[in-house]
Design goal:
Number of strands of chain A: 5
Strand content of chain A: 5-15%
Structural class of chain A: alpha+beta
Oligomer: heterodimer
Radius of gyration of chain A: 75 Å
Largest interface: A-B, 28 and 27 residues
Largest sheet of chain B: none
Strand order of the largest sheet of chain A: 1-2-5-3-4
Chain lengths: 323, 129
């Protein structure tokens, strides 16, 4: 009897232990499973494997597994949970890989774009540098040309300077010669003036039928003109003095020419010369009313018109103080 | 005469029964050998593919379970044998998956590093621009 009681107690104890162990196993499985399905990171992944795990766990919890197979079923359920977790992780990694591959693709595209941009930029820089080099080369060439031109100009300038020096020397010599000539001319002019003055001073008066007459040679006029030479004007005092010696007497001024040229022209020239003398006398204070200027032309020559000396004598102005 | 025939029938039936038992036993043993060969093949393949690096402990357990399964087969403990074979198959699936996860993780890490390098390169290129 005692033996039976002991056996019964031991059996009951072992049954209790087995139940406790079973409950612990189930709780552990449920916890594992809940951890798996509540994991936010792996939630959308490993759905079929999670379903398998769920079925195996539920079969155990709902008592659908035979007692003798329970231990094996717990093992398989635990592995199913682990497998589902690994599958979910696998799928998550695959999705991450996909995402990273997209990123890699985008990066590759961007890198290619950037490299292309850089290549374009480099090409542009190279092109600009080439242009700059070409410009620099052109500038250098232009500078060389300019330098060459300057050198040539310098050479030409030196040559020109030499020529100019020579020209200056020639000019100086010419100036000197011109000065000599001017001096000679001045001397000649002085001589001429002196000669004219002497001639004017030496003009002689003669008594004619008409009255006292003074003859002015053609030396007092510019050649072929009716204007009186300045030197003659300045030395006209002898003539004025001659007239003033016989005050209040009428004075006749007659102009004469040689036979060169037409008669009409000679008449006109003689009148003009007589008028010029009259005007000069008026300017020197002789009263206008006393003076009468007449052009006689070539009509009254005092010498032959066939020689130079004769013609010179015929070209004259006679101032006659009328009786 | 009747007893003789009865005895002969008993002998024939016994022989037949024994033959049947022998045949079923041989068949069961052949199936057990097939299972062992199957899991061993899978284990060998796992070693060849390098699964052992991904789950060395699990592979160690599997090896031990294979030894236990052989012992159970030799001792004709069919239940234990079947349980061990099923466990080995489940363990192998886990090992295979773990290896796959490791490989994928490795690829992901490599790609992430590559992307990081690419990003740095892109930043550098943009800076050049």
């Amino acid at each position: 009897m005692r033996i039976f009681i002991i056996i019964a107690i031991l059996s009951f104890s072992s049954i209790c232990d087995a139940r406790k162990s079973k409950e612990l196993d189930y709780a552990s499985l449920e916890l594992d499973y809940n951890n798996l399905i509540n994991n936010q990171k792996f939630k959308p992944f490993g759905k079929s494997e999670k379903q398998v795990a769920k079925k195996s766990v539920e079969a155990l919890i709902n008592g659908k597994v035979k007692r003798k197979n329970r231990e094996q079923a717990v093992y398989v359920a635990r592995h199913n949970i682990a497998y589902a977790r690994l599958s979910a992780e696998c799928e998550w990694i695959e999705s991450e890989l996909k995402r990273e591959m997209e990123i890699a693709h985008n990066l590759e595209v961007n890198i290619s774009k950037s490299e292309a941009d850089i290549a374009r930029h480099d090409a542009e820089v190279a092109r600009m540098m080439l242009i700059a080099q070409q410009e620099e080369s052109q500038r250098a060439k232009a500078r060389a040309n300019q330098a060459e031109l300057i050198a040539q100009n310098s050479i030409e300038a030196a040559a020109l300077s030499k020529k100019e020096t020579e020209a200056a020397k020639r000019y100086a010599r010419a100036q000197a010669e011109e000065a000599d000539l001017a001096k000679q001319e001045a001397d000649l002019a002085n001589e001429e003036i002196e000669s004219l003055r002497r001639k004017l001073n030496s003009i002689a008066t003669e008594q004619t039928d008409k009255g006292l007459m003074m003859t002015l040679g053609d030396f007092v006029f510019d050649s072929g003109k009716s204007t009186i030479k300045k030197e003659a004007v300045d030395n006209f005092s002898k003539v004025v003095e001659f007239i003033n010696t016989n005050p209040n007497k009428k004075v006749r001024i007659e102009g004469h020419t040689d036979s060169s040229g037409s008669n009409q022209l000679n008449l006109k020239l003689s009148q003009s010369r007589a008028d010029a003398v009259k005007a000069l006398l008026i300017k020197n204070g002789i009263e206008t009313e006393l003076l009468n200027a007449v052009g006689m032309g070539e009509e009254l020559p005092i010498a032959v018109n066939t020689t130079v000396a004769g013609k010179a004598k015929n070209r004259r102005v006679e101032i006659i103080i009328l009786n | 005469m009747k007893l003789y025939y009865m005895f002969k029938l008993k002998v024939v039936l016994t022989f037949f029964a024994l033959s049947l038992l022998s045949i079923t036993d041989i068949d069961a043993k052949a199936k057990e050998i097939d299972q062992i060969v199957f899991v061993q093949g899978k284990i060998n393949k796992a070693y060849q593919l390098g699964y052992v690096d991904a789950a060395p402990l699990e592979m160690d357990f599997i090896e031990k379970k294979v030894i236990e399964a052989r012992t159970a087969r030799d001792n004709r403990k069919k239940k234990i044998f079947n349980k061990l074979i099923e466990e080995i198959k489940v363990d192998l699936k886990i090992v295979e998956k773990r290896f796959e996860v490791n490989q994928l993780n490795k690829s992901l890490l490599e790609l992430q590093n590559k992307n990081l390098d690419s990003k740095m390169m892109l930043d550098e290129l943009r800076r050049q621009l």
